[in-house]
């Protein structure tokens, strides 16, 4: 991993953007993709700038020799954050969805109530509807101040991440600026 270059200093540019974002201000039209990626990673790793910086370094390494039009930030980030700060599972894989979201919320010492005693029970998972599980996770996170987001991948997968609810407006601005279509897990 290498430190952000002189054009973009992760500690200086938009340092408090994620928590001080004003939806009325919108995104700085001069913001680079790299700056927007940094802000997204801060949102995806609330209270964990070290992980955001490590993931940002991986992003910089992966894009070092590529022009901005040679890759889609969303797909590159998906691989960098998978099972650390985000998830992507097949649409009908309830077991992987429950497992990945459970692992993500454990970062904040939270446990979700999936509506059953054992959410890993094979019978429960065989009959589980992933859309209903997503709503359950969304509803279970809101009282704790978190929002479950889904990324519209255009594939037969469900992908997303969890952010602080206070950063909802920032997510609604930053993700589209990176070409990432998101919606909450609310339904």
TrEMBL record:
InterPro entries: DUF6630. Residues 37-184 form the DUF6630 domain. It comes from the Bacteria. This is DUF6630 domain-containing protein. It comes from Luteimonas lutimaris.
